[in-house]
Write a sequence for this structure.
């Protein structure tokens, strides 16, 4: 336990010797106003209100009004009343990740929420709200990352340091795709942010999908839907902070977040409570300013460090892919994976719609042969889907168009290729080999040689 003792000594040394405090002057809904220390505070600072029952309620400064500071609590405000003491704590929230965090489940403050004892803290503090590395100093995206899911590996190849969104309506399989990535990808380290998802799902995810083996190379940051908006927002920041720690140690990190939409919703709640006027669909301008600040933190690091490959799920409300959050996130990321309800309804999982999905780094990272394979397969899918109605109705006569004839032959095989049971992994080379094998079959005959 020497690590733990060092951690404790460090904690004691870091305790502040003097403390500024103000008093609660009003509580309105979720917002607590304090007076007395407002000139010492700025937006984003942390305070701690001592409630009547001596409970300490952590809060964050979200704004100022008529000479008072507006605080939003991380937890419930029961027991907080007029005149309660509000102490200023450290100004910028920090985490102290260490390698010993692998295998652990933590909350937005970096506190353990599993039953594996206290966290061993690292030497260096990492800010929860770090700036992304300067664009001109960042490395280019690296080589391919094997995601273990063949629809993605072949049609939407992902490179180290790339950021992709997984877009789908509710219940189309976003979380299931993430669980496949956790189990099957070849990433060295996986940092998973479960932001605002259901508590039951989070537990199943950690126990069943991740399992002991998956957890051993992962850190999970968890804020369930019943936690306050500040906790949910901070869980998203903390996920990136932990990923940045491992990136700075030279690792290629896979950062998964379920979901960015819940992060945006948390920010919306925070902004609206602080009195910011809503813009698009109730989302405030701050939401659209915060999204790139969060998502840009994933990506390649500066030379001498590793990279953060980011896969972020986006809940597409009402299956409308043009709703404001989807639109904003799509514009920030280097590609989007679209899961389609119609495909899920015909029971083809993962329900990736390869025609509507794009990986912006893809043609450059593949060989000419691989690009040709993928483009040929895409063309077959397009041809078939254009004619699908006629074919289904029996209105198409075989022989009238050789391209359509070929598509009718290849399409079911490509569909079968795109389907992949949750437990099965397919590496990059096998994926391409399978696709090649399909395209080498001859319509109406056995495997050919071209
Ligand atoms: N690979 C798969 N194989 C079989 N069924 C699947 C697969 N992926 C998803 N499903 C089905 O779809 C359901 C919803 O999946 P999942 O929870 O991953 O969706 P989601 O998009 O994360 O949903 P939400 O928007 O509610 O978070 C699952 O309960 C399961 O029935
Ligand atoms: Mg989900």
């Amino acid at each position: 336990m020497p690590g733990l003792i060092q951690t404790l000594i460090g904690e004691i040394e870091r305790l502040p010797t003097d403390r500024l405090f103000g008093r609660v002057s009003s509580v309105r809904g979720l917002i607590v106003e304090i007076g007395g220390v407002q000139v010492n505070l700025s937006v984003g600072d942390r305070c701690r209100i001592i409630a009547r029952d001596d409970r300490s309620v952590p809060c964050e400064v979200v704004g100022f009004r008529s000479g008072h500071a507006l605080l939003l609590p991380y937890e419930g405000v029961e027991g907080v009343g007029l005149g309660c003491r509000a102490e200023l704590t450290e100004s910028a929230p920090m985490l102290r990740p260490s390698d010993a965090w692998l295998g652990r489940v933590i909350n937005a403050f970096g506190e353990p929420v599993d039953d594996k004892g206290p966290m061993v803290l690292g030497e260096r503090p990492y800010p929860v709200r770090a700036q992304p590395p300067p664009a001109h100093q960042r490395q280019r995206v690296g080589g391919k990352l094997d995601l273990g899911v063949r629809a993605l590996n072949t049609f939407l190849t992902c490179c180290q340091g790339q950021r992709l969104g997984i877009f789908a309506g509710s219940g189309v399989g976003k979380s299931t795709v993430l669980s496949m990535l956790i189990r099957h990808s070849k990433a060295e380290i996986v940092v998973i942010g479960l932001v605002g998802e259901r508590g039951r799902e989070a537990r199943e995810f950690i126990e069943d999908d991740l399992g002991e083996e998956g957890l051993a190379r992962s850190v999970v940051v968890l804020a369930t839907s019943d936690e306050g908006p500040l906790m949910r927002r901070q869980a998203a920041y903390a996920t990136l902070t932990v990923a940045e720690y491992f990136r700075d140690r030279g690792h290629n990190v896979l950062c998964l977040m379920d979901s960015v939409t819940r992060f945006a919703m948390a920010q919306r709640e925070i902004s609206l409570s602080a009195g910011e006027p809503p813009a698009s669909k109730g989302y405030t301008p701050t939401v659209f300013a915060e999204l790139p600040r969060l998502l840009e933190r994933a990506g390649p690091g500066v030379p001498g460090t590793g990279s953060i490959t980011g896969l972020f799920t986006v809940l597409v409300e009402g299956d409308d892919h043009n709703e404001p959050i989807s639109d904003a996130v799509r514009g920030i990321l280097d590609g989007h994976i679209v899961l389609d309800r119609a495909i899920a309804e015909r029971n083809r999982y993962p329900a990736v719609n390869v025609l509507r999905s794009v990986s912006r780094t893809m043609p450059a990272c593949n060989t000419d042969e691989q690009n040709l394979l993928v483009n040929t397969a895409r063309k077959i899918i397009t041809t078939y889907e254009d004619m699908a109605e006629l074919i289904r109705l029996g209105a198409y006569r075989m022989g009238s168009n050789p391209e359509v004839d070929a598509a009718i032959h290849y399409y079911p095989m490509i569909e079968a290729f795109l389907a992949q049971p949750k437990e099965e992994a397919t590496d990059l080379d096998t994926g391409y080999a399978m696709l090649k094998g399909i395209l080498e079959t001859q319509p109406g005959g056995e495997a050919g040689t071209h």
Observations:
- Residues 168, 170-176, 315, 349-350, 422 surround adenosine-5'-triphosphate (ligand 1) (CB under 6 Å).
- The two ends are 63 Å apart (CA to CA).
